[in-house]
Write a structure and sequence with these properties.
The chain has 318 residues and is α+β, with helices and mostly antiparallel strands. The protein has 10 helices and 9 strands. Helix 3 packs antiparallel against helix 4, helix 3 packs antiparallel against helix 8 and helix 5 runs antiparallel to helix 6. The C terminus is likely disordered. This is Cthe-2314-like HEPN domain-containing protein.
């Protein structure tokens, strides 16, 4: 709360951050790509399924936080008990639970895409996931250390341990609670820990900050999914530009096959040639054309990619 000079700044910050959390791109495969039926195809399909489910949770959390904020601004005294306070608490609690679900989905997505090794139905904690990432050297050591640092940070613990545990196992953290106990010597004592609840904005800020953190981490994985798809899975339509500037279509290829055979594909596929072509070459005992450029684009999409051939070397340009 110290970073804000007024309640108005807090309200504007929460609204701005929540409204600017966008849904993730769902890198779905086309039917032709799914029919490749490789291990990598199923890896991408399963990962995208998690992204689809995550987008639903993002919508629910945004809705709950903004509704909790709507009632929080009407709370005149955090110690009051009335309908407005009840509605603020209702949406706050919903935000906490769904945020913990989002962290669990993040855990499942990491396990799926990076092939950590946990069974989908296995009951494991995010801390066990972190340990296995480190033990199997799936992530670089500094990345694992940064992940561990955040999991143990006050910012994350405020939501995971304070708010969640209070709502689940103890008392409503938004209400004033007075408990009496007897000490070991038989004297009546008062439990002062829950008498004064935290300010409504403080609870919401904790949720928003942790929400932003996990969304950014999921975005990083989604970027890796897109890169993996573009390098291993997608099927592309391929054309070649010959040195005489004629253009020919040569069919569809898996992107990895295209890249692995790019020095051959254009040559062996261009069997038709003009008589007395000055660009004609001999390839594997046959006279054929020699392309200078390979163009390709993902099936059903328009974004063009170009591979330029210079003195037998291929260079990629988007």
């Amino acid at each position: 709360m110290e970073r804000f000079k007024s309640d108005r700044q807090v309200i504007e910050y929460i609204k701005y951050e929540i409204e600017n959390i966008n849904y993730l791109t769902e890198h779905r495969l086309y039917r032709e790509e799914q029919l490749q039926l490789s291990r990598n195809v199923f890896k991408i399909r399963n990962s995208v399924e998690w992204i689809i489910r995550i987008n639903k949770i993002l919508k629910y959390i945004k809705y709950s936080v903004l509704n909790s904020l709507k009632f929080a601004v009407q709370v005149e005294n955090p110690m009051d008990e009335n309908k407005i306070k009840d509605m603020y608490t209702y949406y706050l609690e919903d935000s906490v639970y769904r945020l913990m679900v989002l962290w669990d989905m993040y855990k499942q997505l990491v396990n799926e895409f990076y092939e950590v090794g946990f069974n989908k139905d296995e009951n494991y904690t995010i801390f066990r996931l972190k340990n296995k990432l480190k033990k199997k050297h799936i992530w670089e050591e500094n990345k694992v250390e940064e992940f561990e640092y955040y999991l143990n940070s006050k910012k994350h613990k405020f939501v995971r341990e304070y708010l969640r545990n209070k709502f689940t196992h103890s008392v409503d953290p938004t209400a004033s609670n007075i408990f009496h106990n007897y000490s070991k010597n038989g004297l009546l004592t008062f439990d002062m820990n829950d008498i004064i609840p935290k300010h409504p904005y403080e609870n919401l800020l904790g949720i928003v900050d942790d929400f932003i953190e996990v969304v950014n981490r999921i975005k990083d994985i989604n970027d890796d999914i897109e890169e993996f798809l573009s390098q291993e899975i997608m099927i592309v339509n391929v054309k070649v530009i010959l040195k005489c500037n004629k253009e020919r279509e040569i069919g569809q290829f898996n992107i990895k096959d295209l890249m692995n055979n790019k020095d051959k594909i254009g040559v062996v596929s261009c069997e038709e040639r003009c008589a007395n072509c000055k660009y004609m070459i001999t390839y594997e005992g046959k006279e054929t054309c020699n392309p200078k450029t390979i163009k390709y684009y993902r099936i059903f999409e328009d974004k063009l990619h170009i591979l330029n051939i210079a003195d037998g070397l291929m260079t990629a340009n988007d």
